[in-house]
Amino acid sequence: MAKSYNRYEYETSPKKLEPYYAPNQKKVKTKAKNEKKNSKNTKKQKETRKLKLKIMLYLAVGFTILFAISYRNAKIDENFDKVQTLKSELVAIEKENAQLEVSIESSLNLTNLEQQARNLLGMQKLTNKQTEYVNLPKTDYIEAASEQVIIEEKQSLLEIIGNYISELFK
Fold first, then answer.
1. What spatial distance separates the first Cα and last Cα of the chain, rounded to whole Å?
2. In this structure, what are the phi and psi dihedrals at residue 137, rounded to the nearest 5 degrees?
3. What radius of gyration do the chain's Cα atoms show?
């Protein structure tokens, strides 16, 4: 009986259509074949797991290396900034030091010292009446050392042994 596929049906439940192709029937496999296939599948699964683990490990190592490099660069930048601020502080301190040196040198001339001595300390210049001269005899008061100082130099072990042997034969 030939069925028409394009025909409209008025019933409430449609008829099942036959497929255009005949599905392949599964062949019955033996237990040995199933075990071989299962063992091959488990080996493949283990290999894929190992491969995935290796990939994950390489990725983790790569990320840690990248993190370490970026952390190191951040620390280098931070230290560079510290060095720059310290250099700028050094320049400012050196400038201030130079200004202080100039002010000290300008205040240390002879006229300023005399004025400060007169005004602050009440000092005056010496007159000829305040000068006293002292006569010293021209003899030498240095005496020569009565004892002779012997300075021994450090000797090596071989020299000490050689000296000891030479003293035995004297």
1. 148
2. -70, 155
3. 55
Percent of the chain exceeding pLDDT 70 equals 73
DSSP label at residue 14: P
User: DSSP labels for 99-167?
Assistant: HHHHHHHHHTSHHHHHHHHHHHH---PPPGGG---------------SS----PPP--HHHHHHHHHHH
Residue 62, C-beta contacts closer than 8 angstroms, at least 6 positions apart? none
Number of continuous H segments (helices) and E segments (strands) in the chain: 3, 0
pLDDT digits (tens, 9 = 90+) for 19-37: 666 666 666 556 656 666 6
Rounded to whole angstroms, the Cα distance separating 168 from 138 reads 53
What is the Cα–Cα distance from 149 to 142, expressed in whole angstroms?
17
Q: What is the pTM of this model?
A: 0.38
Q: Tens digits of per-residue pLDDT, 118-159? A: 899 888 888 888 888 888 777 776 777 677 767 677 778 888
Q: Which tokens sit at 8?
A: 């409209």
The contacts of residue 117 (CB under 8 Å, 6+ apart) are 123
